[in-house]
Every structure is written in C-alpha cells, then in structure tokens.
Write a structure and sequence with these properties.
Length: 414
C-alpha cells in the first residue's frame, strides 16, 4: 500500500462518518446489486473461496440501506465532485430514484452502459450483456475531463477537418476562403466518448484477477477516474471489494480510500496495492476486427449455404448450420498452398475434438485426390469447389468431343 492509499474495514456508513465533509473528489460504488444471491468464487489455485451476501428481505430494505449511504456520500463529496453508482437490471430502477432524491434530478449527468460479451446457456429471456453506471454530480461546476476515441472506419475524416457554416437556408455547407479553398477546422482529438462502453469482462486467466466475486476490470475504473478527477484528487470506494478502484486510482496518480465490511476483501485489496497492476485488453488494443481471422475468400466460396464462420481456428472455416442430430458439420476450403491430404488433415485435427461424424472439405484444385481417397479419414468427404467443378465439366466435354473425333484443331476465334 502507498501512503496515498488506504483500505479500511467496516460498514461504510460508519467509516464514512470519520471522513471530513467535502474532502472527496470522486466516489465510485459497486454495492450489492439486489441479486438475492450469495456470491461465491474460488481462487485460481482453488485454495480459497471468497463470498459476500446480496440477499434482502425486500426492495424497501435495500432502498433504505442505499439511501442512508448516499446521504453520507453526499456529505463527504467536494462541491466539484461526482458519484458513479454501479448497478444492474435488478435494482437500477430503485437506484435511479434514490440518486434523484439525494443529489437532485438536475444533477444527473449520464447513464453509462457497460457492455461486454459473455457466453451463457439460452434462457427464456435475452442474454444480459450490460450493467449500468449512473453519473451524478453535486453541482454544475463539476470536474469533467473529456475523453476521445478513434473515428469509426465509416467516418469521413477529411470532411470533419474542414470548417462548416450555415448557408442562407440554414443548411450546413463547407466554408471557403477568398480563393475558394476549404478552411481547416483545427485538429480534432477524435470522437467524444459516448455513454456506451465496450470493455471486456475480466477473463478467467487475467493477471489482475484475484478470485474475489464480481471483481470489475481496472480498465473500467480507469475510464471513470480519468473523466471525473485530476491528479492527487481523493477517490473513495465505500464498497471496494478486491480494491479495483484503488488500483486504478493509484496507477493514475490519485489518492484513494477503500472501505469494505469483509475482512477477506480488505486483505485482498491491501495485498493488491503492494504491486498494483492492470491487464491490458488485446480486444481493446487491437480492435474486435483483429479477431476475425476467418478467411474471407474461403467463406465467399460457401455462398448460398447456411453457415457460421469460425474465427481463430486453423482447421475449420465454418460450421454448416443445418446440424445432423445435434452434431455440427465443420467445413474447410482448401488453401492455394495446400494439397488435399494436407487440408484434410487440418480439418480432421480440429474437427475430431468436436466429435463431428461428418467433415466437409471443399477442393479447389485437381490434386488427383481419388488416389488418396482411402488415406483420408473416413469422416472427411471431399466436394469440388466451383472452379474445380467448372474445369472438370470443360475437361469432360473436351474428352468426349475428342473421343467422338469432333474436336477442332483450333478453338473458334472470338
Ligand atoms: C460488488 S462487490 C464490490 C466488488 C469490487 N468493485 C471489485 O472490483 O472487487 C460489493 C462489496 O460490498 C461489500 N459490502 C457489503 N455491504 C457493505 C457495507 N455495509 N459496507 C462496506 N462494504 C460492504 C461486500 O463485502 C463486497 O465486497
């Protein structure tokens, strides 16, 4: 732990009572969400289990618990301060009303949707893929550091960089100088950050994972802290759990105070602060498209077939979606540099782990594969791709013509 970071054990309502009025610049809280569950998780080495309870007698009991703590948070906030309240669909409707009540609806700033992708079994509703973070302030004069992202591929950056004006009909047109040239609009920093944040959930192998249930990614907290605080500001997390907020605050040069009622949580947070680290997200660094490694040319050959492309798999290009008795039918297109047996081997190696009884290989070149047919695994069926089929039809046509003695010495000129 550093001199600028502290983690205290206890009910945050009582502990906040010891904090000086108006001394905190930013509060982030991720309290129990009214999930009506006991959250449990074992550490990666399976040596320990951590848990906390989120079971309530009623919505009223939960609302009362939150309301009392919000009032204390309001007291400790600096007049330029902000609160970010993390919740989900279980209680977001209750929390929003309480925040309006305590901070005033006029001090509502944003409803942030933290969106992530997670796999789960199909249920009789839509797969939950977001949580909500409410951003309120104490006043209009709040700290706000705008953040920018990259322009999307479809944005015409040339146009953004030219100054515009309204013409006599109120239409937006490019402004031109006396020589009829476009006037630069100054360098743009990028697209202002929106209220929908696509930040991956912590993966099970992430280095920053502590084994504490409902641990949030440092990247999420970094974004909040950058927006609403400056260096040396004091950041408070009254339900700090494994200390994610404190790690992010420390990495960004802020002072931080965490409180938690669980001894395990306090111990983990203190341990984490000895060497604060964050796991970079390759998804964010490289972009989602970087993970799309399916070969577009190969997939183009499957047009007309119902299939799902397979990413990051050397052996399978797609699964045909009309599955046989619940088995998936993997399909691979032969690559220019491969022979049929090589392509079949790649397909077989990947698909046999999936228990596929039928594997389809699309052949693109004459490889005399009938010669190897009995060397191919029995599950692999080779079909001709369009180019190969056409070449074979032409070759067969020429062969028959020749046999009939009808082949012209020279093909008809165009
Ligand atoms: C959702 S977890 C926080 C997870 C945390 N954001 C992280 O990244 O690890 C909620 C935490 O609130 C704590 N808690 C519950 N009631 C509390 C209270 N009255 N005062 C302080 N902490 C409390 C629980 O022990 C739990 O660690």
């Amino acid at each position: 732990m550093t001199a600028n970071t502290e983690v205290l054990l206890g009910d945050c309502l009582e502990v906040m009572g010891q904090i000086e009025t108006g001394s905190v610049n930013l509060v982030y809280l991720d309290p129990p969400f009214f999930t009506q569950k006991s959250h449990k998780l074992v550490t990666r080495d399976r040596q320990r289990e951590f848990s906390f309870d989120d079971v309530w007698a009623s919505h009223t009991e939960y609302a009362h618990f939150i309301f009392e703590r919000l009032q204390e948070i309001k007291r400790v906030l600096h007049p330029t301060g902000a609160i970010f309240f993390h919740c989900d669909r279980n209680a977001s409707h209750i929390v929003r009303i309480l925040l309006d009540e305590v901070f005033g609806a006029e001090n509502f700033r944003s409803e942030i949707i933290w969106h992530y992708r997670r796999w789960s079994n199909a249920q009789k509703n839509l797969l939950p893929a977001h949580q909500t973070i409410y951003f309120y302030t104490l006043s209009d004069g709040y700290t706000f550091n705008p953040q920018f992202g990259e322009y999307s591929a479809s944005t015409n950056v040339d146009q953004i960089w030219q100054r515009r004006r309204r013409d006599e009909n109120g239409k937006s047109v490019y402004e031109l100088d006396e020589n009829g040239e476009a006037i630069p609009n100054g360098v743009k920093k990028g697209v202002p950050l929106s209220d929908v944040w696509d930040i991956p959930y912590l993966n099970p192998k992430a280095a920053e994972r502590t084994g504490y249930p409902t641990q949030k990614p440092v990247l999420l907290l970094e974004q909040i802290i950058k927006i609403a605080s400056n260096e040396n500001d004091l950041v408070l997390d009254p339900f700090c759990g494994s200390g994610t907020t404190l790690v992010a605050a420390t990495l960004l040069g802020r002072r931080a105070l965490g409180i938690d009622i669980s001894e395990d949580a306090v111990a983990i947070a203190r341990r984490r602060l000895v060497a604060p680290t964050k796991t970079e997200s390759n998804l964010l660094l490289l972009g989602r498209d970087a993970y799309k490694s399916a070969d577009e040319e190969a997939l183009a050959l499957l047009q007309g077939l119902a299939f799902v492309p397979v990413q990051r798999n050397r052996g399978i290009d797609a699964f045909v979606t009309s599955d046989i008795n619940g088995y998936l039918v993997p399909i691979r297109v032969q690559r220019p540099e491969e022979s049929i047996p090589e392509a079949a081997l790649h397909l077989y190696r990947s698909a046999s782990t999936k228990n596929a009884p039928l594997m389809i290989l699309v052949a693109l070149r004459e490889g005399g594969y009938f010669a190897f047919a009995n060397e191919l695994p029995p599950e692999v069926v080779v079909v001709d791709g369009p180019a190969l089929s056409i070449n074979k039809v032409i070759a067969e046509f020429l062969r028959r013509r020749e046999a009939d003695g009808m082949l012209q010495a020279h093909p008809p000129s165009a």
